[in-house]
Design brief:
- The two termini are about 35 Å apart.
- With about 230 residues, this protein is an alpha+beta fold.
- The protein is globular, with a radius of gyration of 19 Å.
- About 35% of the residues lie in helices and about 30% in strands.
């Protein structure tokens, strides 16, 4: 794929990461036309977090960094609306934004792969994040009162896949996810995730303790060095 693209843009209150599944109910006329064109041309669209404005109705100013999305499933409704499933693919930077005649935004973007990481440092971070992510998921399952998904025991060994999965799993504010998406390298992203996982685990531990369900402290759990 060419590194320079012109993409129809879907500003959302969501940060999309490569590999993330994104279901969308498309009902606004401008986005129905946009998605219909993407389906017809088998073309991707861009997803970017809204920096200012609204998801529905009026104009929205997107953050500079987003992710391309590829439509994988389509349900056409009788009144012209769509239910679609899309998957995040490639990170990009927005160079310029303009309004298409149909009312949606188009963006001139440059694809922005993550910079190479130090392999040894990334390997250490992978082990660290795997341990902290498993612990975080255990605490989330306790807080929700549901059984832990066995898939949490089968985490990616590849640094980029693990970094994106962790970013998707973290229940944090969109602006913090946006900060992860804008990390210059996967090593940097993993390093940020160590701190976020530690912070969020402590919050969950305090919450569970207040409900009379104390948990083992992270301090008692051995993680690899950062």
């Amino acid at each position: 794929m060419n590194s320079q693209l012109s993409l129809p843009l879907f500003p959302l209150n969501t940060v999309l990461f490569p590999g993330q599944v994104l279901p969308l109910h498309v009902f606004e006329p401008r986005y129905r036309q946009m998605i219909a064109t993407c389906i017809e041309k088998s073309a991707p669209f861009g997803v970017a977090l809204i920096q200012d404005g609204e998801e529905v109705g009026g104009p929205a100013k997107p953050y500079e960094v987003g992710t391309t999305a590829r439509i994988t499933q389509v349900e056409r409704l009788d009144d012209g609306r769509f239910n679609i499933i899309s998957v995040g693919e490639l990170r990009f930077r927005i160079n310029a934004v303009r309004q298409a005649p149909a009312g949606y935004l188009r963006a001139d973007v440059t694809l922005w792969p993550w910079s190479p990481s130090d392999e040894n440092a990334a390997r250490i971070l992978v082990t660290n994040v795997q341990g902290r992510l498993r612990r975080y998921m255990e605490l989330l399952s306790q807080a929700a009162g549901v059984s832990l998904d066995a898939a949490s025991d089968d985490l990616p060994q590849q640094a980029a896949a693990l970094a994106c999965l962790t970013a998707i799993a973290l229940q944090v504010e969109p602006v913090e996810k946006q900060d992860l998406l804008t990390s210059p390298s996967i090593e940097s992203m993993l390093s940020k995730e160590v701190g976020l996982l530690q912070r969020e685990a402590r919050v969950l531990q305090v919450m569970l303790g207040s409900l009379g369900r104390p948990t083992q402290s992270d301090d008692a759990i051995v993680f690899s060095a950062n």
